[in-house]
Amino acid sequence: MPVAIITGASKGLGRALAEALAARGWDLVLDARSQEVLRESAAAVSVHGTRVEALPGDVTDAGHRAALVAAAWKLGGVDLLVHNASALGAEPLVRLEELPLEGLRRALEVNTVAALGLVQEALPLLRASGAGTVVTVSSDAAAEAYETWGGYGASKAALDHLAAVLGAEEPGLRVWAVDPGDMATDLYAAAVPDDDDPRPEPGSVVPAFLWLLDERPASGRYRAPALLEGRR
After folding, report:
1. How far is CA 180 from the centre of its chain?
2. Nearest 5°: CA angle at 195, between 192 and 196?
3. 160-175 pLDDT, tens per residue?
4. CA angle at 55 for the pair 34 and 38, rounded to the nearest 5°
5. Catalytic residue (choose from 10, 11, 86, 152)
6. β-strands 80-83, 3-6: how paired?
7. pLDDT grade for 230, boundaries at 50, 70 and 90
8. Distance, C-alpha 87 to centroid of its chain
9. Of 35-39, 102-106, 132-136, 228-232, which range is least confident?
10. Global pTM value
């Protein structure tokens, strides 16, 4: 069975992706900071009969990243790496003049540095897969100038560029930066707690990720809403 590592997998898009892959027979290594919530998510995913390793920890910790890859190796390797873990830099979001520099550093460490660190750790197994794939979860804030989203957007823009360069350097892999669009997630609620406008559930964009895995287009940046629109 193919093996995927998914970070930030205890809820939201990470859990929705885990459920979809489990239903397709993938074995999973799941990461999140909250041990209890991650355990509950892993139990829910395991009903599909998939093998699931749930490792709570912080993706900025090199030892934790190594443990994730080691767990995947025991399951058979790494065919897919999804970097979904994210940090905002400030909760709620604030203008750049107020953004704590430590918050910006945290966003960069989680969203960008840890993503590259995990790729570096997993690269030998991804290359050996024959269909190695890296998915970095991006944001429209990486490409558009939204007030208060500067720190988070900068970290995601940097992540997009890392993904683009990785795709150029590793032609044997597929490397996709995917902007999922608006979603009703805890991250968004923490970012803009006063926004009560309804947003799509994370599961609604999962078919776009599955399309990428099925069709395997060229490495690059993709918007999930556009992929879904093209399938209607």
Report:
1. 10
2. 140
3. 999 999 999 999 999 9
4. 40
5. 152
6. parallel
7. low
8. 12
9. 228-232
10. 0.96
Residue for token digits 């041990």? Answer: 35
**Domains of the chain, earliest start first:** 3-226 (3.40.50.720)
Our answer to whether residue 152 is catalytic in this structure is: yes
Tell me how far apart the alpha carbons of residues 31 and 39 are, in angstroms, rounded to a whole number: 10
Note whether 178 and 136 are within 8 A (CB): yes
CA–CA separation, 118 and 163 (whole Å): 13
Tens digit of each residue's pLDDT (9 = 90 or more) over 183-211: 999 999 999 999 888 899 999 999 999 99
Cβ neighbours, 10 Å, residue 223: 18
Active site residue 11: no
DSSP 48: T
Catalytic residue among 41, 138, 139, 219: 138
Token representation of residue 200: 């799509």
Catalytic (active site) residue 138: yes
Q: What are 42's two structure tokens?
A: 């892993």
**Distance from C-alpha of 52 to C-alpha of 18, rounded to nearest angstrom:** 10
